[in-house]
Design brief:
- This protein is an alpha/beta fold.
- The chain has a single domain (23-160), classed as YbaK protein.
- It is 24% helix and 29% strand.
- It contains five helices and ten strands; from the N terminus they run H-E-H-E-E-E-H-E-H-E-E-E-H-E-E.
- It has helices at 10-17, 34-42, 75-81, 92-99, 145-151, and strands spanning 23-26, 49-57, 62-68, 72-73, 87-89, 116-120, 129-135, 138-142, 154-156, 159-160.
- Strand 7 (129-135) and strand 8 form a beta hairpin.
- The longest helix has 9 residues, at 34-42.
Amino acid sequence: MAKSKTPVTAAIRQLRQARINFSEYLYDYVEHGGAAHAANELRLEANHVIKTLVFSDERDSAYLMLMHGDLEVSAKNLARQLDCKSLGASTPQAALKHTGYLVGGISPFGTRKGLAVAVESSILDLPQIFINGGKRGFLVGLPPQTLVDLLQPELVSVAIKP
């Protein structure tokens, strides 16, 4: 039997365990390429590629924020909507510690620690999303309702244009 070319990550294990239907997409990862590079490589709309960002509050509690690939997060508005004094982007080391994933390969599924998750509400209006599968250069395509079903996120409206 041939060895599968797609990785089996903690995220993939969680999706399979929950019996979620998803498709797998591999692309050539480029450092600092981000969601725009993934969308370009896979010929997808950047708005449908969802980036997973890690934020920390004033008590060093971590949060995952899921945002459209072509938009940015207003940390100030996110802090307000999550009832935090302040939020800032986590360092790559802190992100790895909290999620178990390297920056560029962070998935909201199968994280090392159970983290609070916030999702830009307009993501749920998309027919399908493409989100990191837990490894650099690896996305999974699935219905956005999966985020609600598996992650029980806080829905927020914090998107800003770059």
